[in-house]
Structure formats: C-alpha cells, structure tokens
Write a structure and sequence with these properties.
With about 325 residues, this protein is α/β, with parallel strands linked by helices. The protein has two domains: about 220 residues, P-loop containing nucleotide triphosphate hydrolases (Rossmann fold, 3-Layer(aba) Sandwich); about 70 residues, no CATH class. It is about 45% helix and about 15% strand. Strands 1, 2, 3, 4, 5, 8, 9, 10, 11 and 12 form a ten-stranded mixed sheet that branches. Strand 6 and strand 7 form a beta hairpin. Helix 1 packs across helix 2, helix 9 packs across helix 10 and helix 11 packs antiparallel against helix 12. The protein is globular, with a radius of gyration of 20 Å. It starts with 7 loop residues before the first strand and ends in a 14-residue tail after the last helix.
C-alpha cells in the first residue's frame, strides 16, 4: 500500500462539462467503475488511451461498497493507484429503486417510504469509511442538483445530485475536494474552456478544497490542482507518457513569465511530433499549471482583484489488468 497521501474528490456539474475526461486525465491508471462504453469513448476520443474499466461494474451502493472493501483488503487497489466512480448519481438512484422494492410493509399495509432513504444514508456513510482506507486516490463524478427545500422546509444548497437533499451536503463534508464544473469563456484553453467553481462561502452551492488551491474560477484540471498543493500527492502518468510533465512545465514557465497561453503553447510544441491527443493533454496541463502558479505567486497577500485579473488574462466481470508503470 502506498505511503503517499491520497485524495478523495467529488466533481459535479451539468452534462458534458468534461467531468469524466478530467478525472481520467488526473488518474489515467485508475480502475474505472461506471458504464464501460461511455468511459471508453471519453478516454479514447478525448485523451487517446484505453483505460482500465471494470467490465461488470456494481450497480448499487451495497455492491459498490463490497467491491471497494475487497479491493482494499486484498491490496489490489494499489495496483491502479486510484479508483474512479463515474456517475455516482446514477448508482445512488439505481440503489433507491432497489430499496423501494425491498421496503418493509408497515401495519397499514403500505411500504415504509422512509426505509429507502435510511438505506441511502447508511450506505453513503459506509462508502465514506471504505474510501478512506483504500490507500489510493478516489474520485467520483456526479450530476448537479440545484438548491431547494428539504422535507422539513429547510433550504439546502445545490451540490452533487443524490436522491436526498440532506445527503447533498453530507458527501462534500467527507471529500477533500468538492468542485462544480462550469464553462468560462475567459479561460485561455483553446480547446475546452472548463473551470471549477469553488467557494465555501457561497450559499447556493456546496464546494470546498482542503488543499487551499481552488477558487471561484479554478482551471478545470484536477491533476494540476493537486500538483499545486503543498501535499506530496503521487500522480501517475501512463507508461511512456512521462514526457507530458516536461511539456507542461515548459508551457507553465512561459505563462508564469507573463506570456499569453496561446503563445506559450505555440512556442513549446513547435516541431514536436507526438500523438495529437497526448500533446493536447500535456498542453492543457501546462496552461492550468501556469495559471495556478501565477495566482499563487501574486495573490497570497494581495487583497484586491489584481491577482484574479492576472490569472484570467494569460491568453484571453473480472477486473482488468493493472496498467504498466515506470
């Protein structure tokens, strides 16, 4: 089991906001749990690699918890370095359908409509406990659920989409990072202008980052958020793609020196020959790294909008085999 610190992350947002592709880019060697065809499409078409996908993934929370328990107890989780649960919202809703069918019948002859929610609460709590003892990173993607009143008439902010409004705040409470995926036209990535919203003081959405890196328009790049942390996270690259960090660092250094992002990319990749998707991946990491570095260098004791402006203006049925590692 790894001695490096691990992270537990939740990324939520509306569909097609690049949630899945970003967590795959952050943890490319991860064991992926979700709809196999959907995960494969994203990885192969957005990032240019074939991920380790569980071909018979658990469909409900009890099955998921049992599988994670087994991965942790046998030590097999460390072979992958991370676990990715894609569309945890779907697993939660599938679980509710099963529990509603299994609900006990009361004296009135009607099914106990609260039983399924009790099971949801219990299994989400169990999931939290298991994830903390896997010894590897774990990331979950969710759809988003807007804020609203719960059954007691109390307002609950928006967050990860789970069947119970009360659980919308519980899940972020045990994650190290909870961010909302959005699009920002000002983000200088020429391919996809994805950002993460994170503002613990915002009353409308539940977000937070124990690393202290994320802000309201953070580059939508979980790998670089973790790289920017003072915590020594171990983030694997695919075997043979270690050069991506060299390219990312070159681009980040040019951006940190004040050059626009598009110029930094053009200057760095000129004459390079590599798989286009792998090269784009490295460039996107470099852009995010450079912007995060600019913000970190300029904003610690800057209580004006200057640092924010600087960062925004930089260029307008069995388990699959674990991946090889270098």
């Amino acid at each position: 089991m790894s001695t490096h610190p691990t992270v537990l992350a939740a990324v939520y947002g509306k569909p097609k906001k690049r949630k899945t592709s970003d967590v795959l880019a952050c943890f490319p060697t991860a064991l992926c749990i979700g709809v196999p065809s959907a995960i494969m499409l994203v990885a192969e078409n957005e990032l240019g690699f074939t991920p380790c996908v569980h071909q018979d993934p658990p469909q409900t929370l009890p099955d998921l918890v049992r599988m994670l328990d087994d991965l942790g107890e046998t030590g097999r989780a460390s072979d992958y370095g991370a676990i990715l649960i894609d569309d945890a919202s779907h697993i939660c809703r599938q679980s509710m359908l099963v529990w509603e069918e299994q609900s006990p019948t009361g004296r009135s002859g009607k099914k106990d409509r609260f039983w399924a929610y009790q099971q949801l609460s219990k299994h989400i709590l169990h999931l939290a406990g298991v994830s903390r003892h896997l010894g590897v990173h774990m990331a979950m993607t969710f759809h988003e659920r807007p804020g609203g009143m719960n059954a007691d008439g109390v307002y609950c902010p928006g967050g990860p989409d789970v069947p119970s409004r009360n659980q919308t705040e519980v899940i972020p409470s045990w994650c190290d990072i909870t961010v909302r995926a959005q699009i920002d036209a000002n983000y200088p990535d020429p391919w996809f202008q994805s950002v993460y919203f994170c503002d613990p003081q915002d009353p409308e959405w539940v977000t937070g980052d124990r690393n202290g890196i994320c802000y309201d328009r953070t580059p939508g790049n979980l790998r670089e958020i973790l790289n920017a942390s003072a915590t020594d996270y171990s983030l694997r690259r695919l075997d043979g793609l270690e050069w991506q960090d060299t390219v990312a660092e070159q681009i980040a250094s040019v951006i940190a020196a004040g050059q626009p992002a598009h110029e930094a990319v053009t200057q760095t990749v000129a004459g390079m020959s590599a798989h286009p998707l792998h090269l784009r991946w490295a460039c996107q990491d470099g852009i995010a790294r450079g912007i995060l570095r600019l913000r970190k260098n300029k904003s610690l004791f800057d209580f004006t909008e200057a640092a924010e402006a600087a960062s925004q203006s930089s260029g307008g049925p069995s388990l699959p085999p674990p991946p090889p590692t270098s």
